[in-house]
Amino acid sequence: MDSLIVVDHPLARHLLAGLRDAETPPERFRHLSKRLSSVLILEATRNLPTRQARVDTPLEGADVELLDGGVVAVPILRAGLGLLEAATDLLPEVQVGYAGLERDEQTLQPTSYYLKVPELTGRSVLLLDPMLATGGSAAFAVSLLKQRGATDLQLVCVVAAPEGLERLHSEHPDVRVVTSALDDRLNDVGYIVPGLGDFGDRLFGTS
Ligand code: PRP
Ligand code: URA
Prior knowledge:
- Strand 4 (71-77), helix 3 (81-90) and strand 5 (95-96) form a beta-alpha-beta unit.
- The longest helix is centred in the N-terminal third of the chain and has 19 residues, at 26-44.
- The N and C termini lie far apart (39 Å).
- The strands form 4 sheets. Strands 1, 4, 5, 6, 7, 8, 10 and 12 form an 8-stranded mixed β-sheet that branches. The chain has a 3-stranded parallel β-sheet with strand order 9-11-13. A two-stranded antiparallel sheet has the order 2-3.
- The protein is of the alpha/beta class.
- The protein is globular and about 60 Å long.
- The model has no long low-confidence stretch (mean pLDDT 96).
- It contains 6 helices and 15 strands.
- Helix 1 (10-20) runs antiparallel to helix 2 (26-44) and helix 2 crosses helix 3 (81-90).
- The structure holds 1-O-pyrophosphono-5-O-phosphono-alpha-D-ribofuranose and uracil (URA).
- 1-O-pyrophosphono-5-O-phosphono-alpha-D-ribofuranose (PRP) binds at residues 76, 78-79, 101-103, 108, 110, 129-138, 164, 190, 199-200.
């Protein structure tokens, strides 16, 4: 399985354009974020296991496939909440955990202020965080989830920086990243360039 998927779909590029636009207000930003994360989550769940089953259509019996095996979505607070509704809409039986992390603005080091997750052993875990910048937050969250038993993990993000990808994959080569863009670089304060600014602030109208 590829360790990086950059979703190649015109709809994803169109939605990302709106998120990048500094003029997009929070209400529209939230709407675009939900729609784009649906596209990303569909891609991330492409290889979910299924089991054979049989149903009766109005005409006759038919062989069908049903999703087999639990999916757990874990948004990294706060910004990851912008990707959660798409996961619960697409996968009504998904279980949800939460990881509260904050990046220190000076050192860029993440600290954990909250972690509540269901059983992760044997589950497909979708870690939701729109921005993979230095990779510190994602790598830290993956370590926390592995300590809780996760072995099948994917990071779903909107924009990734090369520096973050390299860090995540050097610490966790088994984690696949599904994103809508691989951007150019980080600036000297750890923001992705060209990026879209501070996702959490734009999502929640704070700054
Ligand atoms: C942002 C973003 C990631 C992190 C990425 O969160 O949502 O979690 O930064 O940066 P990194 O790859 O360099 O670790 P932030 O700490 O700003 O918190 P917020 O979601 O509460 O806004
Ligand atoms: N977090 C964000 O929200 N944006 C960035 O560019 C980097 C980290």
